[in-house]
Design goal:
alpha/beta, five-stranded parallel beta sheet, binds cytidine-5'-triphosphate
């Protein structure tokens, strides 16, 4: 599948913060994904990193001066800022210092970077970074609020800072910035889930037979993890109840690891009250061994069968209240009818149908092909796409229900 970045024109704005070193990796990553990248630096950014680094990585002259000395990059001297602004499909500013942040939200255009921002027509991804007190400062926070009207903001993360202090202020890692850019280039340009708490389940459950063996299923957890990641990028507070899977949770997501259906039910029930939406992407086992053997079952025991009993249906037993609840249905036959029946039987607001008959969709793949059915009977069929994009469409449908 072709990368969304392929052939996209991206301006990377770099301002004067120590996190500027991470922006080299960001430029490299965007180019690797097929984008053409041109860099504009503020004069203070030059104190942290040499323009040569970026011009070598991108193959383009780096713009620093508002009045370039010579005609470079094929743009005319007089209106280069307009040409740049019109050229771009996307602009990313990383890192964005509190100084440039303040300038942008107040309409200043006093250097090459802020001038291009003022002339921009394409979406802007802004990635602020500062030391902990500069970041939490009331004025910065007010400016960040204003920035959200004009940009997709990838907020700073908590952690160890260059000053030796720790707290919120670290620039997001390049991978996360690329994810945000991916989302914005795909048309998801607003952080529309801010203020919402989402509870997402993902992965299989394992039902133990003895200390060594279990009954499981082939769920990789990828779909649920991508939903959690996309929701977090779109501003939601996300708790992810994950069955056994090798997937890593995204920074900022609270992961609750569980093993069995019983543990998953407990985690869902305990966290439901503080959540606005539950998305049950997990492939919960329907049966478990009636008894778990204390010791490993030996071959000599001549085991012929295992007595099974049904697990509790987490969705069906849920105290839903006014929360929105989304289920998944993975089917092999009578797909549409089965999914609609499940939606009604489990009292869901929405169900996401996967068919195992679709190629490249379902377990283990990074792509999926889903049909979304709402309680009101709205049906939307989506084409095959990455699980990350599928997650974003699912979230947009959910956001339409709220
Ligand atoms: N689910 C659940 N608790 C279970 C089994 C499933 O909450 N014990 C949830 C799943 O997370 C999913 C939805 O119910 O969101 C549908 O799951 P699925 O396995 O397709 O449905 P089942 O009710 O188990 O029906 P069947 O296996 O017979 O198709």
């Amino acid at each position: 599948m072709e990368s969304i970045f392929s052939g996209k024109k991206i301006i990377l704005g770099v301002t004067g913060g120590i996190a500027a070193y991470k922006s080299c990796l960001l430029a490299r990553e965007l180019i690797k994904l097929g984008a053409e990248v041109r860099v504009i630096m503020t004069p203070s950014a030059l104190e942290f990193i040499a323009p040569l680094t970026f011009s070598t990585l991108t193959g383009h002259e780096v713009i620093v001066n508002i009045f370039p000395e010579s005609q470079k990059n094929g743009v005319s001297l007089k209106t280069w800022h307009i040409e740049y602004a019109l050229w771009a499909d996307l602009m990313i500013i990383a890192p964005l210092t509190v100084n440039t942040l303040a300038k942008i939200v107040h309409g200043f255009a006093d250097n090459a970077l802020t001038t291009v921002v003022a002339a921009l027509r394409c979406p802007l991804v802004a990635v602020p970074a500062a030391d902990v007190d500069m970041y939490s400062n009331k004025v910065t926070q007010e400016n960040l609020k204003k920035l959200k009207d004009i940009a997709f903001v990838v907020e700073a993360e908590e952690g160890f800072l260059a000053s030796g202090l720790s707290g919120r202020g670290r620039m997001a890692e390049p991978g996360k910035i690329v994810d945000a850019a991916h989302m914005v280039l795909s048309g998801f340009i607003r952080k529309d889930l801010e203020g919402l708490s989402l509870l997402v389940t993902a992965g299989p459950t394992y039902e133990d037979i003895d200390p060594v063996r279990f009954i499981g299923n082939r769920s990789s957890g990828k779909m649920g993890f991508q939903i959690a990641k996309a929701a977090s990028l779109r501003g939601a507070k996300v708790k992810l109840v994950a069955g056994p899977t090798s997937e890593d949770a995204y920074p900022g997501i609270e992961r609750i690891s569980v093993r069995s259906a019983k543990e998953m039910k407990k985690a869902v029930d305990e966290n439901m009250e503080l959540s606005d939406v539950l998305i049950m992407a997990a492939a919960v086992a329907d049966y478990r061994p009636l008894k778990k053997a204390q010791n490993k079952i030996k071959k000599e025991e001549n085991l012929k069968s295992i007595d099974l009993t049904k697990t509790d249906d987490i969705l069906a037993a849920l105290k839903k209240g006014d929360k929105k609840v989304v289920g998944f249905a993975l089917e092999t036959d009578n797909e549409f009818k089965n999914a609609k029946d499940k939606l009604a039987r489990k009292n869901l607001d929405m169900i996401v149908l996967n068919s195992l008959n679709d190629k490249m969709a379902g377990f283990e793949f990074d792509t999926n092909k889903v049909t979304i059915i709402t309680r009101e009977g709205k049906v939307k069929e989506y084409p095959l796409m990455s699980k990350f994009l599928t997650a974003n469409y699912i979230l947009s449908e959910i956001s339409g229900l709220l």
